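Technical annex B. To support the medicinal chemistry partners, we prepared a structural model of the target in complex with adenosine-5'-triphosphate, based solely on the information shown next.
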Amino acid sequence: MSETLVEVSGVSKTVYGREILAPVSFALSTGEGVVLTGPNGSGKTTLLKILAGRDLATEGTIEVHDSLKHRAGIATVLGDPPYFEDLTVLEHLRFVCVSWGESPDTSEPERILAALKISRIQDSFPLELSSGERQLVSLAIGFIRPSELMILDEPEQRLDIERRALVAELLLDKKRNGGAVVMATHDPQFVEALADSHVALGITG
Ligand SMILES: Nc1ncnc2c1ncn2[C@@H]1O[C@H](COP(=O)(O)OP(=O)(O)OP(=O)(O)O)[C@@H](O)[C@H]1O
């Protein structure tokens, strides 16, 4: 049975008198995807940061299920994560796995790299990768840790068509396994594939 994870009610943000996020409301349950769309500057990233606890709303409330109250339940892919200069892609993924309690011998890093078809870069350093490859590594880092809710900002950025389909498939898997997804995107295929609810933001100010 699905449970409500997040309830967003009338959340908005105003900075220096300018409304950068118009009031928005939606609810999200386990196994569901909410997809945010809207023109550049309509507040998608702002809303995702508020949901992730990285920014504050000016008005409105967000109720979250107890399982999300300690942040451990929430994985975010909001731009590049910080990278260690001297750790390879595989070492980053192992580091994240072990930090979340996996055995150091886990084969999860290899599995996620294969799922995204980037096994060949496992021994490269993230800061030396192409921008699309680095986007795939930041997605891999988001997918590899346990989470009940994934928050993603334009996961399609800089990805080729084949990789977009692989990412969509991993997100669908996440939902099939009871996880929830909130994502901003400009890609209609992601909306089609993943949205149980579609929230279209607009510019008012
Ligand atoms: N800290 C801030 N201070 C002032 N203005 C901000 C701040 N953060 C964001 N903005 C402004 O808020 C508006 C919404 O930004 P946001 O990044 O949320 O849009 P977006 O919908 O994600 O856009 P895009 O599709 O281009 O990624 C923009 O006009 C931006 O300049």
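Notes passed to the chemistry partners:
Helices lie at 44-51, 89-99, 108-115, 131-144, 161-176, 188-194.
The chain has two domains: 1-73+148-158+175-205, 79-146.
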